[in-house]
């Protein structure tokens, strides 16, 4: 399943979550210094994706894969990070911040998934017309800690 998303969010973040997530996006454990640096926050059943532009514009491709991602070369991306999420409700949501407006809602099989976020064009984030873009892939896999596969350093 593949979705093209374009929406507005605030506070430089949006969420990917189990419909019945128990995690608290306001907790001190969510947006830690490490999470900000890694551009990904994690709580029980919810992941926060950090975006670069100040306008709050999210341009995103979100795809649920049948198996592990085939992308192994990250040269075309600025930043790549992944982490696990557990789905217990059978419903995955993409939500804005802070209103938690549902951007997509899809039924999926319960279990552990990896969510990988590829960030592109981060250097344009503060341009008049930012073109930062986020490609997100998700597939079923045993739990994994947050892992930065390619780190963006601002120029």
What is the residue-averaged pLDDT?
A: 94
Distance between the termini: 35 Å
Strand segment count: 11
* Helical content (DSSP H or I, runs of 4+): under 10%
Helix/strand structural class: mainly beta
Structure commentary:
The structure is a single chain. With 155 residues, this protein is mainly beta. Helix content is 4%, strand content 46%. It contains one helix and eleven strands; from the N terminus they run E-E-H-E-E-E-E-E-E-E-E-E. Strands 1-5-10-9-6-11 form a six-stranded mixed sheet, with no helix packed on it. The chain has a five-stranded antiparallel sheet with strand order 3-4-2-7-8. A hairpin with a 2-residue loop joins strand 3 and strand 4. The longest helix has 6 residues. It starts with a strand and ends in a 5-residue tail after the last strand.
In short:
Helices cover 4% and strands 46% of the residues. It is mainly beta.
Provide key terms for this protein.
11 strands; ComJ_sf; 5-stranded antiparallel sheet; single chain; 1 helix; 6-stranded mixed sheet; 155 residues
Architecture blueprint of SSEs:
Blueprint (H helix, E strand, L loop, with lengths): L1 E7 L4 E6 L14 H6 L1 E4 L2 E5 L6 E8 L14 E9 L3 E5 L6 E6 L3 E10 L12 E8 L6 E4 L5
Parallel strand pairs: 5-10
Antiparallel strand pairs: 1-5, 2-4, 2-7, 3-4, 6-9, 6-11, 7-8, 9-10
């Amino acid at each position: 399943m593949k979705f093209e998303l374009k929406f507005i969010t605030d506070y430089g973040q949006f969420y990917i979550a189990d419909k019945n997530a128990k995690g608290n996006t306001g907790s001190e454990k969510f947006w830690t210094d490490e999470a900000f640096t890694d551009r990904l926050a994690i709580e029980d059943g919810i992941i926060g994706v950090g975006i670069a532009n100040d306008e709050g514009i999210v341009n995103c491709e979100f795809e649920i894969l049948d198996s592990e991602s085939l992308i192994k070369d990250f040269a075309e991306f600025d930043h790549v990070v992944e982490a696990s999420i557990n789905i217990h409700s059978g419903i995955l949501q993409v939500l804005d911040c802070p209103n938690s407006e549902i951007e997509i809602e899809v039924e999926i099989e319960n279990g552990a998934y990896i969510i990988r976020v590829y960030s592109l064009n981060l250097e344009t984030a503060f341009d008049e017309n930012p073109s930062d873009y986020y490609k997100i892939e998700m597939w079923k896999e045993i739990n994994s800690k947050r892992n930065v596969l390619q780190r963006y350093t601002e120029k």
